[in-house]
């Protein structure tokens, strides 16, 4: 049974079960990464056999396998995936940045150029569920950014990848796919092996071993984020339908036993009705055992004094997904400062964003929405600035630069300017 609290009765850090838990995965992951770095493909084949039951001579998915997947998947589902991809593409196209140049001062040219990453790695989970949506969400922004090559890894249980995953990769534009999962896949992408090319950035969700591996290789490569269990926070008032609110909470609870679903409301009636609905709906779910653990151990109903306070609570929690499930959601939008993705009104369930609407579903968790953002085109670019001065332009400011450098005790910095001033037009 889900627990109810008054806002004053609970710590914010406890709401999404954010206590730091020590795990024993760090040492195991470090060992796997070192093995992959040293032994390359040979290590990968061992781990594929050990963890996925797959004896693989060739780690890469062939063109024939990709083509066969397109034939195997229901055309209606392919059409849905293509429509979702179009929506995702249209949204992320608006995020593209452009170079700029400033020439406002005589003899001075300043600017910034946008440079796509050379190679990105997309990790797609393949454990308890199949996630073609992750393929689309993580690949399409990289393609829009102009990444030269996109490498995807995903576990292949028994040597086979779900054909829907391969179809999504085809639609999104993945260049190469490898039958590798877990920490070993992260290691292959970070260090490179005989078969798997080294990438510049690794994105995509995974289990505790994948998250730890991303954490350990960060610095050698870039990563998107260290994602925690999935979260949803719903703001609801007395006009809400309890059956719908409970269904939305369970849409996240079914992800994982550690997933969190929170309702914040100023209505005692809604709180009690949602509690009852959760008890009715959970046994009906195919993943009822997972949802039950999530609801009982990691989920909560919080009673606020008003909807204004409810918004304040949401800002303090900074949830991954925030549903504003009320009739006038835009009245509160300006006050919402911290949330990964915001779903407005009674007809915008979080699942709409997971699959179809267009905004990205790779989102900051564990309160990191206070300072970070959803995956976007920006994650697959870097920026370089450039500076050009003529002799006359440098002469105008040279002595100021020398003075600045000397103030910091860096005489060689100043000398690099003063020597040019002394030589004048002889350069």
TrEMBL record:
Origin superkingdom: Bacteria
Annotated GO biological process: L-histidine biosynthetic process
Comment on bound cofactor: Binds 1 zinc ion per subunit.
Swiss-Prot/TrEMBL keywords: Amino-acid biosynthesis, Histidine biosynthesis, Metal-binding, NAD, Oxidoreductase, Zinc
Molecular function terms from GO: histidinol dehydrogenase activity; NAD binding; zinc ion binding
Catalytic residues identified in the record: 320-321
Reaction(s) the record says it catalyses: L-histidinol + 2 NAD(+) + H2O = L-histidine + 2 NADH + 3 H(+)
Ligand binding (NAD(+)): 123, 184, 207
A GO cellular component annotation in the UniProt record: cytosol
UniProt entry tagged with the keyword NAD: yes
Keyword Oxidoreductase applies: yes
Binding site for Zn(2+): 252, 255, 354, 413
E.C. code: 1.1.1.23
Binding site for substrate: 230, 252, 255, 321, 354, 408, 413
Essential cofactor(s): Zn(2+)
Pathway: Amino-acid biosynthesis; L-histidine biosynthesis; L-histidine from 5-phospho-alpha-D-ribose 1-diphosphate: step 9/9
Pfam families in the record: Histidinol_dh
Protein function: Catalyzes the sequential NAD-dependent oxidations of L-histidinol to L-histidinaldehyde and then to L-histidine.
HAMAP family (UniProt xref): HisD (MF_01024)
Family in the record: Belongs to the histidinol dehydrogenase family.
Name this polypeptide is given: Histidinol dehydrogenase
Organism encoding this protein: Anaerotignum lactatifermentans DSM 14214
Gene assigned in the entry: hisD
